[in-house]
Amino acid sequence: MHQQNDMLEALREALAVSPENALLRKHFAEMLAAHGRTEEASRHYTLLLEENPKAFDLRLGLAKAYWAEGQYEKCLPLVNAFMDEVGAPPEALILYARVQVHFKEYDAALHAYNQAVSEDSAMADKALLEQMHAAMQPSAPATNGVASVATVNNLHEQLFGYLERPQVTFANVGGLETLKETIRNRIVYPFQNPELYRTYGREAGGGLLLYGPPGVGKTFLARATAGEINAAFISVGVNDVLDMWVGNSEKRLHNFFTYARKHAPCILFFDEIDALAASREKTKNATMNTIVNQFLAEFDGVKHSNDGVLVIGATNALWKVDGI
Hints:
Blueprint: H1 2-17, H2 22-34, H3 38-51, H4 56-69, H5 72-82, H6 90-102, H7 106-119, H8 126-136, E1 142-143, E2 146-147, H9 155-159, E3 163-164, H10 177-192, H11 194-199, E4 206-211, H12 218-228, E5 232-236, H13 238-241, H14 248-262, E6 266-271, H15 286-300, E7 309-315
Parallel strand pairs: 4-7, 5-6, 6-7
Antiparallel strand pairs: 1-2, 3-5
């Protein structure tokens, strides 16, 4: 213990001499957190983020410090932002799962947990998994620290790990006032006043396409939209749909729409929608055209009413989307 204190004091003195040394401050913050001094560590992470607000390792370090301190409200927006980023590491996904469990968002927690363990089996946490299962469906089996979700026959049990109840709203989204007002007029108000809108021949639901480069917050805005109307939120990635066997991709798409209809009001969010609804005029792949046809049939509600279901797509390649 004495040696640890001496090392921390040496780092503190070095930082006093070179306060602009970001690498030194980061190392000091990591050492403080490792020795349980998370409150002081969080202050240094905050200073570092003022200079480099997009640094993932700094945001993860601050989130871990807040979690260790019990500052769960401060930790929540940080871990929620992790889910908007491509390639978030398993460690971040597990922290997200822990925070969501604290806020009783078990569906979102299990989805992130499964993703983390599928990428790194060492992330398996039996106690965390049992806590989620006890809250969601006590009789669900758990094997080797991995949730057996996709192997059961019931549609709800197949997809319950995808369902979220976001706590963020437009109040958590900085700027974008014009876009938020557009979403309010097209989505929020129809959901909040369905009878009024039906009088004028409109139903709550429909579609919205968000366009922009990676990292601008498209997924976060979609989650905030769900939070704004207290709707369920299902996030679907390309890998959640595409399958090597003919017909399986179409079946998966149908299942996601069916699940969303069962949980209306619900926002069904498709990331990288250009990969699922690519222009049929620009592709000669018959299989992909069949998937696009299935997607459009589900979206148009040919056989089933989509009242209360909103489809939000996100893309950074607008010109690849069918019909654009």
